[in-house]
Amino acid sequence: MQIDLNTPDGLTLEAVRQLLASASDDEHTQLRVTKGGIAYISSGVVGGTDIGGLLFRLETWAKGSGYVGLVAASDEVWVMQIFNALKENWPNPPFDYIDVY
After folding, report:
1. How many CB atoms lie within 10 A of CB 76?
2. How many domains is the chain partitioned into structurally?
3. For the chain, percent helix, then strand, then coil, each to nearest 5?
């Protein structure tokens, strides 16, 4: 699952909800956005690993912390936070690592 931020109707609350729901909380995850505008959740490869081609990334979400998965996707406040983080940082993030959102 990914979100194309270049498409006018690509970034929606429902798309963010589906993105969060598609990831497993059984391993560390990180929301990443490529320079081409594709937002996705990386599982396993997190932190400063393999960041070539990324425009920005959010902090790493520790496994078992509830930041991804079905429960996270049902949390309207969390979904809105991630939606806003993407909306505010694409296409010109102030930094390549975003930990306040």
Report:
1. 10
2. 1
3. 30, 25, 50
Domain that holds residue 28: 2-98
Residue with tokens 């937002």, as numbered in its chain: 39
Q: Which residues lie below 8 Å from residue 2, measured CB to CB, with a gap of 6+? A: 19, 38, 39, 40
pLDDT digits (tens, 9 = 90+) for 19-76: 999 999 999 999 999 999 999 999 999 999 999 999 999 999 999 999 999 999 999 9
Tell me the CA end-to-end span of the chain in Å, nearest whole number: 22
Residue with tokens 């990324």: 54
Amino acid making up residue 50: D
pTM exceeds 0.70: yes
Would you call 24 helix, strand, or coil by DSSP? coil
**Structure tokens, 76:** 């309207």
Give dist(CA 9, CA 76) in Å, integer.
Answer: 19
CA distance 42 to 61: 10
